[in-house]
Amino acid sequence: MGSEMCIRDRLCCPHCKILYETIYFSPTQRKAENLEMKLKKSHIIPLILFSGLLIAKPVFAEEVISSDNTPMGHYIEQEQSQEASTESTSDSSTTPNIRARSFAAVPASNAPSDLKSDDNTLPRKDAVDIASYQSWMTQADFNSLKSSGVKSIIVKLTEGTNYTNPYAANQIKMAQNAGLNVAVYHYARLTGANSQSAANSLAIQEAAYFAKVAKSFGLSSNTVMIMDCEQPYRDGSGNIIGPNPVTVDWATAGVQFSNQLKAQGYANTIFYTSASWIGTNTATCQMNYNTLGGAKKLWAAQYLYGKPSSNALKNTQYGAWQYTSQMYFQGTANLKSHAVDTSIDYNNIFSPKDPVPPVGNKNIYRLYNTQNREHLYTSDVNEKNQLPKISKDWKYEGLAWQAPSSSNTPVYRVYNPQSGEHLYTRDNYEISVLTSKYGWKKEGVAFYSGGSQPVYRLYNAAAGIGSHFITLDSYEKTVLTTKQGWKYEGIAWYGN
């Protein structure tokens, strides 16, 4: 998609892969310099079995992947597709039934190439995804990624129903400090689901946990939320760790995941998976993009043998393409020695998008000033877009609520020229007192009240100019009033 981003330990901003395995193999050997990193990424294997013994890989303590801390692409990368860099992986009638595929390891000599960020022949380096395994990253590393042309950082937030990346808060903060867009992902497990209904139920539970943690971090409602779909049915020891591929369709579960996020206030959901899993036939693929809302909702992982080229882009039909796990950015010593996952974002899918309001309604946007700690609420798109350009202190935090274009209950905005504070109220008496006795100035109607959901007003004298806070989110209200010292002042007006 700050960090201590949570609702908040600072007063300034209160709110504010995929394998169906019938045969299981161990990972192939990696280069020594990459042993501290996660396993090399790969594709799902076509129905080809390779002869010969697998190369044993030594186990290092720092490489151990716990059952509740799986990095993006862990299972995708364990097996490498035996296809030439010129071959496509788009949906095809010749693709073998994915529910019956077997997999074999590819010789290490066929592994994708290490890449360097200063190679101008490579595809664009729009996005980098990270997890707890990138705890080594410093502010200088994020600043360097920004300077190298990276636009978005995708941070692992959660896994299953009980794991949160312990480094996520700081990773998000540093990415934001560098001026990078932040999206977040959830590693979906759907453990042991043997029916579609069971998988759907687990998807809903996992999405609810994902949303809960996102809210506790103060992530805005327009944050791009990503479902990482790659958990295999069994691990290499035969233990059931995912859903039954015969009876469970990941895309159908993904719809339930997305719907739950939307119900929790997060409407921007996309799906990460292997290119080999994507298609249009539910009988032969796990991620039918028509089920999920179109091909642009998919972020496809595919690692080519040899070096990918900007002149021969792959997976352009999808929203984004993760083309390597072996990118070495050249800006800092850390980045030079640690490879990171890198993607080209074809359709700007990692950037937050505001929903189009229903006819007769307007979006009310929320911005936050990091310097004076004030929240600003506006229906003016130009004001929302221009303030962060005028001053780096202003940060856009997403959609606050939706309001009717007009109603019998206007909400006014008043301004204190001495302090710079804005106040929002529908109370004419409050306006009269503020303007006649305390020097506040009327700024007219800010928006209108109307809708089915209450909009709450809270107060905290210690927050200075940002002493008044407005939110539609009852969870945010609860956290602020029970843990952060804010006082509940009642329902201010209504919205949706």
Question: Would you spell out the secondary-structure blueprint of this structure?
Answer:
Layout: E1 115-116, E2 127-130, H1 139-147, E3 152-159, E4 163-164, H2 168-177, E5 181-187, H3 196-216, E6 225-228, H4 250-263, E7 269-274, E8 278-279, E9 287-288, E10 298-301, E11 320-328, H5 333-337, E12 340-345, E13 361-369, E14 375-378, H6 381-390, E15 394-404, E16 410-415, E17 422-425, H7 428-437, E18 441-448, E19 453-459, E20 468-471, H8 474-483, E21 487-495
Parallel strand pairs: 1-11, 2-3, 3-5, 5-6, 6-7, 7-10, 8-9, 10-11
Antiparallel strand pairs: 2-12, 3-4, 11-12, 13-14, 13-15, 16-17, 16-18, 19-20, 19-21
Helix pairs in contact: 3-4
Overview of the molecule:
By secondary structure, the protein is α/β, with parallel strands linked by helices. The chain folds into two domains: 343 residues, Glycosidases (TIM Barrel, Alpha-Beta Barrel); 135 residues, no CATH class. It has eight helices and 21 strands. A hairpin with a 3-residue loop joins strand 3 and strand 4. The chain is globular and about 75 Å long. The chain starts with 114 loop residues before the first strand and ends with a strand.
